[in-house]
Every structure is written in structure tokens, then in C-alpha cells.
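Input C-alpha cells:
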């Protein structure tokens, strides 16, 4: 296919979509506006699965849990449908090409995961509620396959690990700002801290725990020489936002874990010897 023909095809598809949406809007049907978005996601899934992976990461902190009582179903939208799509494309590609790295499959961690999945299948058969068990198994698959078996391939390039964190941290910072602003409207009260992060998080404990997880990354970003001063300034701003978020989360476990982590980091950074730690422990106990 020549470049001119490709360009003509793109223009034709765009024209058809514009006409279709114009007709649908005329009849007060607005779902057609989603067609270009869906088409873009499908193209990403087919031609650039890693970009769809990053898209799922980006939407993870922004996702909203939708529950359907009649079907006893709860989905995190839009992340879980994206993850299901990534899983399906990845499996089809792996089955068709049969070129997945066998070293990954034979790794002890992979073998443990595969064993766990096989055991889950067995328990689905003997389950008193097989449909519920099967749903649980499938949901495990769309978490494990994209974020383990696919992520390993993506993370072979070390820079992609940093990219992964940025794709999560930036939207999560927006959630933190939203939470703090909403919390301010309730005078930063302790009771309000339990629910102001809704609908993005169910409670303040998980919210606080995830906030704490990224503090080591801020430290690493500060130390990375390849980052410019502008990036480091942006990192510092994010660090302040997350610090405010963790303080106002009123999550004691998160505070304690962060304090402990800072202590361990200090020991590592200053290369404190074990003998020194033992002496300090005896002095403290004495």
C-alpha cells in the first residue's frame, strides 16, 4: 500500500466518522463520540501494546469502581476493561507467534504464579459457587498477565520503569489535590479523612499506603543525574503534594511505615555498620 493510498484511506475514515457523528448528534445520540476513542485504543492494542499498557497505568489512580448488585459484579473503570483487552491481545499474540521468552516462564517466580493459577482453576471446579470462583480467576488473569508477563518485556528497557512510575504518579497527584481540596471544605477533620478520597479510593488506609509507596521513587528521581533541574523541581513539587496528602490521610500505619523506611534509608545511605546498630539498640533498651 502506497503512502498516498494510506493517506487517502485515513481521510476517508475520518470523513465517515465525522458524518456518522454528525448524524447521531442530530438525533441526540452522543455515543458515537466514543467511536474515535475506541478506534484509537484498538489501534494501540494491535500496533503498540506498550502504549496501551501505559494508558492503563495512567488511568489506574483515576479509575472509579462501578458495582452491579444484580450480577454481583464490580469493575474499576476504565482500567479493568483496558487490562482485559491487553490480556486478550497479549495471549493471542503469544499463542500465534510462540516467541515468548522461555527464561521468563521458567523463572521460579513465574512458576509459582503459574502454579497458583492452576490451583485456582482446580478450586473453581470444586467450588460451591463456581461462577463466582471463575470470575475471581479471570480477574486475577487480567491483573497478572499485563502487569507481570507483559511488564517484564517492557521493563527490559530500564527507562521504561521510570516511565511507568511517571504515568502513575502524575494522575495520582491530581487525585491527591482533589482529596486535599475536598478535605479543606470539611476543615481537615479526622472523620472526613475517611471518605474524601472517594470515588477514587474506598478508604484512607489504602490511599495512605499507596502514597507512601512513591516516596522512595522521589528520592531516586532526585538522585538521577540524567534528569534536568526542571524535572527535579517538578519532582520536588510532587513530593510536597504527596507529603501533604500523607499527613492529611490520618493513616497511622502509613506514617509509621514511612518513618521506618526513612530510618532504613538513612542506615543504607550512611552505611551504618551492623555492630553500630547493635550497640545503639542495647543503649536504647538500657
Amino acid at each position: 500500500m502506497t503512502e498516498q493510498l494510506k493517506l487517502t484511506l485515513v481521510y476517508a475514515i475520518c470523513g465517515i466518522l465525522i458524518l456518522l457523528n454528525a448524524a447521531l448528534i442530530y438525533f441526540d445520540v452522543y455515543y458515537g463520540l466514543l467511536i474515535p476513542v475506541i478506534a484509537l485504543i484498538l489501534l494501540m492494542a494491535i500496533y503498540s501494546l506498550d502504549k496501551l499498557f501505559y494508558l492503563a497505568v495512567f488511568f489506574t489512580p483515576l479509575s472509579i469502581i462501578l458495582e452491579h448488585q444484580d450480577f454481583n459484579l464490580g469493575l474499576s473503570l476504565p482500567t479493568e476493561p483496558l487490562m482485559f483487552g491487553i490480556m486478550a491481545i497479549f495471549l493471542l499474540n503469544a499463542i500465534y507467534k510462540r516467541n515468548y521468552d522461555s527464561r521468563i516462564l521458567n523463572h521460579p517466580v513465574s512458576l509459582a504464579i503459574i502454579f497458583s493459577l492452576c490451583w485456582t482453576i482446580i478450586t473453581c471446579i470444586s467450588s460451591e459457587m463456581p461462577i463466582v470462583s471463575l470470575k475471581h480467576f479471570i480477574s486475577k488473569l487480567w491483573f497478572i498477565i499485563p502487569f507481570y508477563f507483559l511488564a517484564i518485556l517492557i521493563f527490559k528497557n530500564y527507562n521504561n520503569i521510570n516511565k511507568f512510575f511517571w504515568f502513575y504518579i502524575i494522575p495520582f497527584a491530581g487525585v491527591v489535590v482533589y482529596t486535599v481540596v475536598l478535605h479543606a471544605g470539611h476543615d481537615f477533620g479526622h472523620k472526613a479523612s475517611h471518605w474524601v478520597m472517594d470515588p477514587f479510593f474506598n478508604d484512607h488506609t489504602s490511599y495512605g499506603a499507596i502514597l507512601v509507596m512513591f516516596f522512595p521513587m522521589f528520592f531516586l528521581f532526585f538522585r538521577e543525574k540524567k534528569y534536568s533541574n526542571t524535572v527535579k523541581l517538578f519532582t520536588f513539587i510532587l513530593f510536597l503534594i504527596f507529603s501533604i496528602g500523607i499527613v492529611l490521610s490520618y493513616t497511622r500505619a502509613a506514617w509509621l511505615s514511612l518513618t521506618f523506611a526513612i530510618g532504613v534509608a538513612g542506615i543504607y545511605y550512611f552505611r551504618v555498620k551492623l555492630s553500630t546498630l547493635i550497640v545503639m539498640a542495647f543503649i536504647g533498651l538500657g
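Residues 1-47 form one domain. The mean pLDDT is 84.
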